[in-house]
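Q: Convert this sequence to structure tokens.
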Amino acid sequence: MRAFNFSAGPAQLPYEVLEQAGRELSDWQGSGMSVMEVSHRGAAFIECAAHVERALRDLLAIPDNYAVLFLQGGASAQFAGVPMNLTAPGDTVAFLKTGSWSGKAIAAARAQDVHAEVIADEAASSYTTVPAPDNSTVPPAAAYLHYTPNETVGGVEFGYVPATGAVPLVADMSSTILSRPIDVSRYGVIYAGAQKNMGPAGLCVAIVRKDLMGHARSTTPSVLNYTAMAAADSMLNTPPTFAIYILGLILDWLTESGGLAAQAERNRVKAATLYEAIDTSSFYTNSVAPDARSWMNIPFTLPDPALDTPFLEGADADGLTNLKGHRSVGGMRASIYNAMPLAGVHALTDYMADFAARYA
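A:
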């Protein structure tokens, strides 16, 4: 029996995609080899990668003045890669700090010898809120404003896109990309690790406005240099071929399932179902401000931490896996990315109601 996997990443993948990958694992396109064995320089894989880029551009309506890059190192590599490409030492970069991952991006930027100006920090709420849209001023001389639309650890999500004027906006969309439509034209750079909504760990997709390219520092490694990678169609070195192939299958699955508007509605219903189960219970609590609640990562706590172990053991026995919250915050966390069906959320809420009835 397939488990309902609530992991924050690597996350559950669509079953249809896994089935297709399984069928093709030992013989991809009649080659007698898996996609992991064919040359990334061969015509078959070059066309595979081109298909993936076209499908991503179509789903996200990416304008022509943006490059699409398939990079390695996950989103964490881009914490350093973005300032390497967009700044010179001593430049000012603005940040919105809303939790763990935006904090890591700030630290990595400071290591690149930039002045990281945190124009809003939600520490006072223990990172259960996002700054009000008009509560921070972006320095006009900033090279860019960086924010994390969804904080995976704390379950905090922006309900708006920050206004930055002429300052480019950079977003770590690892936990939200492909979960709903976005207006790519509002961003200078979007980057996202694949292991949430896009496939296996190891791949990072970057969408970069072309006028921001060509300014990388001379010390930038070639595999992090946006201009160099774009010129080589992301094949300056051997790319993560299997991850790119799986991303293509997922993009096809999303397209056949109605596109991102339909996926957004499915995700909205899933999140509303789980939040309703939490909010109507006197047993479970979610501390995130209602206007900052994530659709993708939903943390909750039980009335007594001593109940965490029996809750998790019972959930595992019911095929509801990886519900343990991040070690920095404790409690539970249900990550309900695109591949989590509504049936999985219902299975979880049924289990939660039964557990509360037994332990209240």
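Residues 259-279 form the longest helix (21 residues).
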